[in-house]
Specification:
The chain has 111 residues and is an alpha+beta fold. Helix content is 41%, strand content 21%. The radius of gyration is 14 Å and the shape is elongated.
Amino acid sequence: MEQKNVVLCGASRYEEKYYLNPDFAALPDSVKDELQILCVLYTQEIGGILMLEYDEQGNLHFRTEAKENDFDYDEIGSVLRIKELQSEKQELMEALEMYYKVFFLGESYEG
C-alpha cells in the first residue's frame, strides 16, 4: 500500500486561491498567516502552484507544479526562491515538522 504525502498548505496562481488543510486548523493564527503569505507571494512572483507537503517521515517539502503551456512560470526562479525560503524560514519549517511528528505521527517531543 502506497502512502501519500500530506499537504499542509498550497496556493495556485491559476485559480488565485490559497488552501490550508483543515487538519492543521489548530496551528496558531500567526503561523497560518505566515504560511499564507509565503505561498501566495511565491505564486505571484514565480507562477504555477506551490504546495508544502509532509512525507511519511514527517519531513516538510516544497512541491511546485506548472501547466505545460505556462510560459510565465519561472522554473529557474522557482528553484532559487525555494532555496531562499528554506533558508529564511528554516526555524518555521523545523517547528512545523516537529508539530507534525508529535501530533500526527505520535513521536515523542525531543526539545
